[in-house]
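Thread: Newbie trying to understand structure tokens

Hi all, I'm a second-year student working on a class project, and my supervisor (Dr. K.) asked me to get a predicted structure for one chain before our next meeting. I've only ever worked with sequences, so writing a 3D structure as a token string is new to me. If someone could post the tokens and maybe explain what I'm looking at, I'd be very grateful. Here's the chain:
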Amino acid sequence: MAEKHQDKMTNAMNNSKLYLIQSFGCQMNERDAESLAGMLEDLGYCPTSAQEEADIILLNTCCVRETAESKVFGLLGRLRKLKVAKPDLILGVCGCMSQQEDAAKRIRRSFPFVDLIFGTHNIHELPRMIHQVQENHEAVLEVWATEKGITESIPVKRKDKLKAWVTIMYGCNNFCTYCIVPYVRGRERSRQPEDIIDEIKELVQEGYKEVTLLGQNVNSYGKDFKNNYRFADLLMAIDDITGLERVRFMTSHPRDFDQRLIEVVASAKKVCEHYHLPAQAGSNRVLKMMNRGYTREHYLELIRKIKERVPNASITADLMVGFPGETEEDFQETLDLVKQVRYDSAFTFVYNIRSGTPAAKLEQVSEEVKSERIQRLIELQNLISLENNQREEGRVLEVLVEGETKTNPDLLAGRTRTNKLVVFQGSGHLPGQLVQIRITKGRPNLLEGEVVPNGT
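---
Reply by user tm_fold:
Sure, no problem. This is what the structure looks like when written as tokens:
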């Protein structure tokens, strides 16, 4: 049963105090950062982008890839001088990396000036832990070994005013052999549907147009319930919310994307025609070593079923290169999978060792081979992305306007229902509007277009 968040301590802080949160990693971490920001602002802190101005700095860490950990350790080293100059600065490390016992100990040993270390299971305790640091003038290391249910009603400070992340579940039960997530995020726990629906209704009242439902595997939503309420049921309920324009979700596990879910996403008016389905590899031998729980044939049949019901569906994926034991033949099967599916885009990455996972003990592929293969994969996917986007030329697509582009204030940017980025001229259109755009140019990573007068 969800417990209510009660640790506010608003009067303990001064409004002039500033905070900075730097996040690494996935969308779940971005959403966690919004909760951290919400609690800090409840305590009277205001955001800043300047480290030297901050009274509290939180590094919200990731441990999925070694590069993210290296960035955190490098940043901590650079923050040492700032901590010496500002001894009252509260410096904290949280998130997936600090949830690992070895990493937390390493932080404490190598960076003793860090004031606060906590993990993924107790971020709602942040106000109390800050108060403890200030009152006792000593560091707090508090990493819960296991999850203790779901805490609702945590304050949230969202970065976006149009689109919102909405977490529907936490944890993962899949234990892919390369992945550390189940060890740092815990077992799967689903939020109650009424809590999710209430949150989305509040977002709509605040002017939000689009929500993205988050979970390590959203298709597993509800499997921990005693009744038969599942992800498809939740989508149908959300689709009925008045005023909401668009619904997205991620991430889906190909093994659990069943026919009922396909029928629901095909018929729901607000669920966008974009499905992120991480394949990871195209070789059955590698998929088995990864413990993915499906075959290449199952994956391709799933894609066929989705496109049969949703012909204009956009399919994206995660693809890994260099898993231990991957041969050139295995890699060729991944390339062939990409050619068959013709992803609109793909997040491609090189496998790197995660201590504590089964794959770390296997014979590794050389860095030289991994580097060569990832370049071949990227080149192939970029070509397919370009060809797919060029096919959009001449079509009129609905675009949710997000605002000015970062590089040119005369251009606006927005996204289609299939999650393609579109840039166009149209300064009269305010963010949040749905406009009809005729696509004039397809590029590998975006579409260019022009506003269709009166939407015709």
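A couple of things are worth pointing out once you decode it. The chain has 13 helices and 21 strands. The longest strand covers residues 396-404. Feel free to ask follow-ups in this thread.
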